[in-house]
Amino acid sequence: MDITLSVYRSQVKLCRVGKSLAQTAASRKLMKDLFKTYLEQRASPYSLIQKVGLSSNMLKMMVRKYSEQLVYQPIEEIQFWFTYSNGVFLEPGYPPLYYNRKSSQQRIAPNTTAVGAIGEGIAGFLAQRLYQARKLARPTYDYPDIVMAAGSSIYLIEAKATTNSVDQMQQVIKNELGRLCVYVSGCTHLAPQTEVVGILMATALINSNTYSTYITEIQL
To answer: What is the tally of structural domains in the chain?
Structure first.
């Protein structure tokens, strides 16, 4: 089964003021809020750069290569979740249980490990495809998710994924972008002769065979 992957990209270029804010935001909460507002103003709008037909076999290979955890059949898990959430398994004439109602706070959720693994697999796939990057390291329970290289550039990649709406994914991006900017800013001082680029890849799993990935590039 092929998955249609829509890829959107935005760029954030930090000026001298932005770099100073990033350094101070690492230790002061007030500066974190100010830096978050600054990033919202500096980020360019997302634009569709390509649509990719991604086979399930390729995605499985990318998940094995880039996922932080060992996940058995993550694609099948997500397919089952969308089938279940669409009400296929409800018996005719019987309403869903109270805790399955969308208005309830106690909703059955998808396998979050499978969702995260797919997000990490897609991040690695797109880094190879768009930046011709190779994997240097896959930190375990550390930040960021993937470290890759291409030429003289180092890419620090953080992956996020959700089965929620695209609007909720945009909120995840806003919450995570500041943290990655602070990290990238700190790493540039460790390797002044190397271009360090931060990449936040957030994937919304719309349905079983339709995904949307929002790439935010951080350039200092």
So the answer is: 1
